[in-house]
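User: Okay, second chain of the day. Same drill as before: sequence in, structure tokens out.
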Amino acid sequence: MPEANIDYKSRRLFFDNLKKLEQRDLEDFVLSLLSGSEIKDISRRLMVAKLLKDGLTYEDIVDIMGMSESTIGKIHAKTHGSPVVNKLFNKD
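Assistant: Same drill. Structure tokens below.
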């Protein structure tokens, strides 16, 4: 049986170490830690968040990304109104 709170401790370790990295080391860290499919999944979710922020409809995003409306809806629910997402994709 896994140690109590191991998922929380692991997540904290991940984020705490991300904060320590210099920007030039971040890509290498992610590439060495995550599989290609994990990076692809995260990247595609980020792209959906951007497309939603750009005002595209779910139907447009389905056509572009090939994701289900259900997945797009979940990403929208998690990112809608997020100050960080708004900051990342703020139109100048």
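The radius of gyration is 16 Å.

User: Thanks, on to the next one.
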